[in-house]
Amino acid sequence: MTQTLPTAPSGAPPAVRFRHVAKSFGAVRAVSGIDLDVRAGETVALLGRNGAGKSTTVSLLLGLDTPDAGSVRLFGEPPERAVRDGRVGAMLQDARPVPRVTARELVAFVARTHPAPMPVAEALDLAGLTDLAGRRVDRLSGGQAQRVRFAVALVGNPALIVLDEPTAALDVEARRAFWASVRGRARRGHTVLFSTHHLEEADAYADRIVVIDRGRIVADGTAEQLRRAAGGSLVSFDLAGRPSEGLAALPGVGCVEVRGDRARLRTEDPDATVVALVGLGAVRGLEVTAPSLEDAFLALTDAPAPTAAAVPAAPADTVVEVR
Ligand SMILES: Nc1ncnc2c1ncn2[C@@H]1O[C@H](COP(=O)(O)OP(=O)(O)OP(=O)(O)O)[C@@H](O)[C@H]1O
């Protein structure tokens, strides 16, 4: 098996550094002033809606595109040099299969271009390709071809692994195996940066989530920090016949929703709200729930609410009645 990477010396430059990076395509500002550091050994998710700027960010990171402004450095070097030195492995969305070569031949070819590759059989195994190694890559299914791209990204044993929407074509089992392999890399000290639409994948596998919207970073932190940044824990309880008037004035409460006999309060300060409710004796069925990552993502990216059950972002003194 491949060895754990040596720990980066203290004071070493970050694996990824973007400074004021901008990129436009005609009138479209795909990336609009991004500043981002990824420390060696971190696993970071780039999360954003369609067209948010994730793939453009990945292209700039790999040196496939040149920024109009700002700078990109990988381990303190220009991306082209870091890629040439074999420090970066990438799995891109739209890589075309090479005709007439087998998965093993392709992965072996890429291994030979790297200074310290892992054994080809290991890369094939990590990508779940052992049984498909002798098949031509241009005859594989979409999910199988995606696994070949993963093996290609891994085989050079690169310090930085970049994965652009890596699980889009994978079935449930392949997805689970894929993330187990990614985690294995991260445990060995590799830096992993992946872009995704899947909030649950960002939540489960990233140390840090960077939310991109309209070419800008709108949030950067752990899933827990993002949930908190979106604000608004929910405190709910049974009214038990009490009137709902006055609840919006309780400490921390921004919005009140009443469904039948149950009140749901969105609050910036759940502790203070609960203490106030206890003071009123309104404790039957009392529950406090943190906002989900989906709530946070939607709040951060300004998208329309996905379900009628979401509490509307109403002004502080509004009482929303839903019957
Ligand atoms: N080569 C290009 N020419 C013109 N416009 C482009 C080009 N590449 C990207 N864009 C535009 O830049 C914006 C950002 O696109 P990008 O592909 O980076 O988004 P994304 O977050 O990766 O989206 P998705 O999740 O749909 O893949 C979009 O408005 C897109 O249409």
Q: Please state roughly what percent of the residues sit in beta strands, choosing from under 5%, 5-15%, 15-25%, 25-35%, 35-45% or over 45%.
A: 25-35%
Report, as a whole number of angstroms, the end-to-end distance: 60 Å
- Summing up helix and strand content along with how strands pair, one would put the structural category as alpha/beta
Neighbour order of strands in the largest sheet = 5-6-7-3-8-9
Specify the CATH homologous superfamily of the largest domain. P-loop containing nucleotide triphosphate hydrolases
- CATH topology of the largest domain, by name, is Rossmann fold
Number of structurally distinct domains = 2
The general outline is: elongated
Provide a short characterization of the protein structure.
Helix content is 30%, strand content 26%. With 323 residues, the protein is α/β, with parallel strands linked by helices.
Q: Would you write up a description of this structure?
A:
With 323 residues, the chain is α/β, with parallel strands linked by helices. The chain has two domains: 16-227, 3-Layer(aba) Sandwich (Rossmann fold), CATH 3.40.50; 230-302, YebC, transcriptional regulation domain (Alpha-Beta Plaits, 2-Layer Sandwich). The chain is 30% helix and 26% strand. It has helices at 54-61, 79-84, 103-112, 120-126, 142-155, 172-187, 199-205, 223-230, 270-280, 293-301, and strands at 16-25, 28-38, 43-47, 69-74, 88-91, 160-164, 191-196, 208-213, 216-221, 233-238, 253-259, 262-267, 287-289, 319-321. The radius of gyration is 24 Å and the shape is elongated. It is found in: Cell membrane. Pfam families: ABC_tran. One of its GO terms (molecular function) is ATP binding. It is a peripheral membrane protein.
